[in-house]
Structures are given as structure tokens and as C-alpha cells.
Specification:
Elements lengths: L1 H33 L5 E10 L5 E12 L3 E3 L1 H11 L2 H19 L7 E5 L2 H4 L4 H12 L6 E6 H5 L3 H12 L3 E7 L6 H6 L4 E4 L1 H5 L5 H16 L3 E4 L5 H10 L3 E3 L18
Parallel strand pairs: 2-4, 4-5, 5-6, 6-7, 7-8, 8-9
Antiparallel strand pairs: 1-2, 1-9, 2-3
Helix pairs in contact: 3-5
Bound molecules: ligand C2E and magnesium ion (3 copies).
Ligand C2E binds next to strand 2, helix 2, helix 3 and strand 6.
Length: about 270
Amino acid sequence: AAKAAGKSAYRTCTPALRESAVSRAELIADLRRAVDEDQLHLEFQPIVDLGTGAVRSAEALVRWRHPRLGMLPPAKFLPLAEETGLILPIDRWVIHEACRAAVTWRGRVPEATVAVNIAAAHLRRPDLIATVTAATSAVGLAPRALTLELTESALIEGTEAVLERLHQLRELGIKIAIDDFGTGYSSLSYLHRIPATELKIDRSFVARLGTDDRAYATVQMVTRLAGAFDLAVVAEGVETERQHDAVTAIGCPRGQGYLYGRPDSPATVGQNRA
Ligand code: C2E
Ligand code: MG
Ligand code: MG
Ligand code: MG
């Protein structure tokens, strides 16, 4: 009976597997065309001063308008992009497009910076500096108006060459944020080595603020650490008034989350919301 069940499971399973393999290959082919055919677009999410509500920055978040599947969030295609190396042209496009858009909304919020997520693969490329400086100079964006967001895992595998590149970026005035802080190997020794300017406290801690004392202690500790290291600090994923009150009470100076604004078109950055 077990054998029979196994056999029928095998039979019903195979077409599904084959189907998903095909759609994966198709998706890779589609992704290859996405940049050239202008199917990617960026949304921007505000990062605000928690005291005044003023917009301090906006993070560029990529979406893919797939011709048949509709709008895809990054989680649906970035892993594939990373596996295939297609993340490099995508991130290059994102950097250029984010700088171009930032120039338009910086008219409304003059000192605001634009934050761009950078994949680990890109950090390993010597041409990252050239890509970034080409983007800022093409549109006349001051390098200090650009923040590159890197994850702890991307940084931890960083070689001396990566470290040197980060220092060069800093010398150009470009800012460096550590994204999703607390979810990777938040080691104090690398905080000493990496020339970061900002920590972004992962939203998993912010989400548990009202219910988990350890999450509260974590947000408090990271906020203090950032203060002591003279780093900017942002609480990610603030969704409720209660979370807002908690991060404010802790003394975290900046926040990002649905409570302050969802990712939206560049035209909405710095516009007064109802
Ligand atoms: P991230 O850099 O940590 O970006 C924040 C993510 O949290 C975004 O998801 C944003 O929409 C979401 N978010 C913001 N506020 C809230 C909130 O209050 N509640 C909840 N539940 N979520 C919130 P998104 O746009 O789906 O992006 C996911 C991840 O994909 C990003 O995480 C980033 O790691 C990556 N990503 C996005 N755009 C790019 C890109 O252009 N290049 C690269 N390499 N990675 C990107
Ligand atoms: Mg980010
Ligand atoms: Mg994050
Ligand atoms: Mg994240």
C-alpha cells in the first residue's frame, strides 16, 4: 500500500515539479528582459524625524511590473536575480533611477537623502564606486544625499577589498547604513571596522515592542549604541501608534513604516498627507 501511495504521489507530483521548473526558467528569461523593457519601477518610502514628523530620507524599493503576472514585490524576484547575477544590472538601474528621482523631490525636501539597497554581490564589485559616482554626477545629486543600505550578512563576508571600497565611498561623502540591524551577526567588532553612518533596527524587533521585553531592550540597546558611536538610527516597520510611542520613549530619533507612509511614487515624497 505504501508503495502504491508512493507511486501515485510520484505521478501527481511530477507534472507540478516540471511545471514549476519551466516557470522558473521562464521567469529568468523574463527577468533578463525586465530592465531593457522598462518593466522595473521604484517606490519611495519616507524616513521621518520622530520628533517633528519631517521627512529626512526616502528609501527606494524596487517592484517588477511583470507583463503576465502583474506587480511583483522584491521577495518574488530578487532571490532569483541574485542566483543568476541579474541583480547587478537591476541594482545599477535602481541606483541611477533613485538618484534621478531624488533630484525631483529634493526640491520639496532639500536636505533629504535617498537610500538605495545594495546586494552583497554588488559590494564585491570593484566597479560599484564607478556605478555610484556615474549616477550621482549624471543627475547632479550631491554624494552626501545618497545612502547605500547594506545588510549585515553582506558585510560579514566582506573582504579587505570590500572594506577599502566602503572607506572610498565614505571619502566621497556617500553614507552607509546597516539594514535589518540585529538579524545577522551584529558583532561589535565589525561595527568598529565598518565605516557605517547609520543603523536600521530591523522591524521584527519593532513589531514585538509592546509584547516582548527583550525586543524593547534590544531597540533601546541599539539606539544607545548608535548614539555612542555617533551613528544615525532608524526604527524600521513602525505600523502602530503604540510602536511609535515606544520608539519615541526609547529616544530613537528616526522611524520608517506604514504609520508614516507606505512605499509610493516619487511624487509623494515630502507631500503633506491628509
Ligand atoms: P528593506 O530594505 O529592509 O526594506 C524595507 C521593507 O519593509 C520593504 O519591503 C518595505 O515595503 C517594508 N516595510 C516598510 N514599512 C513597513 C511596515 O510598517 N510594516 C511592514 N510589514 N513592512 C514594512 P519590500 O519593498 O517588499 O522590500 C523587501 C526587501 O527587498 C528590502 O528590505 C530589501 O532588502 C530588498 N530590496 C528592495 N528593493 C531593492 C533593490 O532595489 N535592490 C536590492 N538589492 N534589494 C532591494
Ligand atoms: Mg533597506
Ligand atoms: Mg530593512
Ligand atoms: Mg528587510
